[in-house]
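Hi L.,

You mentioned the student needs an example of a multi-chain input paired with its predicted structure. This one should do, with 1084 residues in total across all chains.
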Amino acid sequence: MKKFVNDPNQFVPEMLKGVALANPDTLRYVPEYNLIMRVDAPSDDRVSLIQGSGSGHEPAHAMIVGKGMLDAACPGDVFSAPPMDYVLETSKMLASPKGVLHIINNYTGDRMAFDMGKELAEAEGVQIKTLLVDDDVAVADSTYTIGRRGVAGNFFVIKVVGAAAEQGADIDELVRLGEKVNSVTRTMGMALTSCTPPAKGTPLFDLGADEMEMGVGIHGEPGRRREKLADANTIVDELLEAVVTDLPYEKGDDVALMINGLGGTPIGELYILYGRAFEQLEARGIHVRRNYVGEYCTSLDMAGASLTLVKLDDEIVNGLSAPADIAIRTF
Amino acid sequence: MKKFVNDPNQFVPEMLKGVALANPDTLRYVPEYNLIMRVDAPSDDRVSLIQGSGSGHEPAHAMIVGKGMLDAACPGDVFSAPPMDYVLETSKMLASPKGVLHIINNYTGDRMAFDMGKELAEAEGVQIKTLLVDDDVAVADSTYTIGRRGVAGNFFVIKVVGAAAEQGADIDELVRLGEKVNSVTRTMGMALTSCTPPAKGTPLFDLGADEMEMGVGIHGEPGRRREKLADANTIVDELLEAVVTDLPYEKGDDVALMINGLGGTPIGELYILYGRAFEQLEARGIHVRRNYVGEYCTSLDMAGASLTLVKLDDEIVNGLSAPADIAIRTF
Amino acid sequence: MTDYPLGQVEFVVRTIADTAVANEKYFGDLDAVVGDGDFGYSLARGFELVIRDWDDFDRTDPATFLRKVAVVITSRIGGTSGPLWGTAFLRAATAVTSKSAVDGPTAVAMLRAASEGIATRGNASLGDKTLLDSLVPATDEIERQIGLGSDGPTTVRAAATVARSTAEETAKLQARRGRQSYTGERSIGSVDPGAVAVAVIFEALADTWAV
Amino acid sequence: MTDYPLGQVEFVVRTIADTAVANEKYFGDLDAVVGDGDFGYSLARGFELVIRDWDDFDRTDPATFLRKVAVVITSRIGGTSGPLWGTAFLRAATAVTSKSAVDGPTAVAMLRAASEGIATRGNASLGDKTLLDSLVPATDEIERQIGLGSDGPTTVRAAATVARSTAEETAKLQARRGRQSYTGERSIGSVDPGAVAVAVIFEALADTWAV
Ligand SMILES: Nc1ncnc2c1ncn2[C@@H]1O[C@H](COP(=O)(O)OP(=O)(O)O)[C@@H](O)[C@H]1O
Ligand SMILES: Nc1ncnc2c1ncn2[C@@H]1O[C@H](COP(=O)(O)OP(=O)(O)O)[C@@H](O)[C@H]1O
Ligand SMILES: [Mg+2]
Ligand SMILES: [Mg+2]
Ligand SMILES: [Mg+2]
Ligand SMILES: [Mg+2]
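Structure written out for the whole complex:
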């Protein structure tokens, strides 16, 4: 395993500690509950936004805590939903008179932990609502599964809801806004390589030298199908076809386009994907008004990328363009 | 080769095109010379800052063109200095009455290309000065080599000089400032894995499963020595010892600390390194006043990291905290 | 089982905990085939805490003991397994409330309660390719053996045999719950990690069951 | 060489270009050992352009032709090789200025001028583990063969043999120039890519030299 790691069981706590040390003026780390929170939260004037999910998706979510985005993140271990306890304690610590909003990606484990944590926190007087993100088009919404998975699209939901929360919007308004953003957001990802969880020490799955996994999950779950490795343009075209036809996005639509790296792919390659996606969208008459090229929701060290579209309107654009102050920054 | 690539020979142009498409309001791409430039450059009020080097180090340098940083980048192919022609034409296109500043990393190929390009451009009336970056402590300054290599420290030189250029500083002042920043900046990097240039298609060198390369160059050049793979803390301590003792940085110093990912290492791991480096510096009485955790100067898809320290004073802090508007951004 | 004041209840819990810790890698590798590989890690980290706090659990009666263990599991195991296994222990506790010892029929009632808790919490039915697919048939077998008048070791060994064979048979099923379910038909061909974990636990019990 | 209006000069340039393109991978792999792996790519991309523009070069005389080729190489080959090889071609051009054909002694003068240009531009001396370490001894051998009255094919073959053996001997040297030099003593044990490229070019010339 070629990783910067000391004790694999301390991988997540050491990472969180690093994030807090790098942002002493804005973030606080509570080791008991894997909690990263704004130093100025909870606030009486603001609904508290909490996101929890497995770790290994950084910068999601521990590194997007800050003014204008999350009030707190309580990540679980790598690729595991946080224990119910973390949800409960985080909800209590972040309790605001305006309420607490749980923003969760649609996975069984996360939903169970948040459901149980919510119930217990409510019993202690905390007001809580839930926002589910399920933007992944790779997995069909069938009667068997619990529905689509939540992936990189959570960035857009959190960004828009975070901007409104910062303005003092009430919790029902935030739920409406978040559900709206989620409803116009679609993503599909693919993997060129597997990823290696630190505690496992070996790749999660095997991909042949000439294979790729289309529709891979952000926890390395297999996707739609394994295909023969293709060139960058072919990959973009396939992702785009799946995403565009799903909502569908139509001629004349204004969209945000995200090319999200999965952790092991350098940014130069992401811009190659971006160029192709931009041109293909223009050819379909779909206009890219905002773009996001980089890492937003990763799968540890996986080489691969996901493509997200968000259909824009004025309300969403306002939220996306609002300032925010999080750990991920350039200067 | 697990990469997003179409024709490997078009890797760099396609990437540059993507960058320009993602920043239509601020950047222009001139394919003939691999040139990415600000749409508002050259300006009569501003010295033009140009950086050229091999590609494969993204975001350096094509993605740090913009207000407050570079006016243009003319990257060569992956890991190859740009041809002299690109330097010449870029210098001519960016000619400002206040002059053109070449910021280059200290490598033979880059120096030759820039020397020749400068000579020819000067013959056509362009005023040019040169700023050399050579922050890498891995390679000793001997009579044989042309001296230290320039690596991730170039970010700091460009950031501070870029801020001053934006304020209208004249070219001699920029040279003074850049040389000062360079003189208090030191870096050392290390690799957990090799990297794979797209045109080569196979890893540049072989590293055993239990080996790492200390002091690796950003073009995958071998470093000080190959060592047995160690844990994150041990690696940080070794990098830090080399960097701290080189200037040396001393008790009571205020510093900026950069943990730079080499392209294949996820940001979660970088924060583990940051936490350790921060604590070890504090233990030495050296105070981290600014931090930079992420990718600034990479080696394609190499897993690895470099550690940079900059000794701060008010002038440098001013330059580092000035705003800038480049392709790499979060929103 | 002489070390355990609460006898078989404690012995069973301890065996589950030891088995979970000892099989971290095996269970994780099973989950990596079509899942996300965290099953072994999640169980091991949670049951490690059960072992750490072992001496401090309130042992007033089996129900109290099981309830305390359930809290640790629910609150500290991440992933889907924390809520599922925690619920199972909680429901088993409820089934033994106010009894000071566990006889055969009570054991069956506890196992049934645990299965129903998992089914409810996970919205899962038999055949969905989950741990229920070995836990339920193994429980049926225990009930059958008790009806036949078998002794403890015979009963537990028979349950282990059934758990193993039904766990192996989950390979034929398509996953309809958990992360594996996203893969649709590709989940067919590999066994369910949860169902195998149940079999491994029953086998560990059978290997050491005394009376 | 009947296809070439300028005879041997053109034939040599064309052989260098063809060899560079054909050996892209080989030269790149050599550079990857202790350098940065771009040598093959850089040469190939540059000489590809020489081939592409082949018919359009001004062929007024050998010097003009070489100067035009030098501009393409200097301006379009990246890395260290662009400036070095461009300078070599430029200096060779100067050495043949105002001559309409190239005899033996002129060829030697051109090669000497090229080597000196490389040495100046790269601040390199013999023994620094660069292409000079095969180019200079090969030039010496050509001069010796001309002194012996050898014919063209014999002379070129002898030069190729010397270039190859001296290129192999660079493995013993520690690199003092170029990216390899950063590795210090670790560069000992592998041949210099530039020196080998010179040998491969001389061998290609020897294989096809007609008169
Ligand atoms: N909804 C569910 N209901 C019942 N059992 C489930 C459910 N989802 C998963 N399981 C069981 O849990 C096991 C996987 O656990 P774990 O890896 O911890 O969860 P996750 O799928 O969230 O990664 C599966 O093998 C299966 O036996
Ligand atoms: N300073 C120099 N002087 C002369 N020859 C050099 C010098 N540096 C490198 N070379 C030659 O160039 C070859 C490497 O070329 P190339 O890979 O294009 O350059 P770089 O070292 O910049 O990657 C070396 O094998 C050596 O023969
Ligand atoms: Mg999981
Ligand atoms: Mg090079
Ligand atoms: Mg799992
Ligand atoms: Mg090279």
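You could point out the following to them. Residues 8-183+322-326 of chain B form a domain with the Rossmann fold fold (CATH 3.40.50.10440). The CA atoms of residues 235 and 302 of chain B lie 16 Å apart.

Best wishes,
N.
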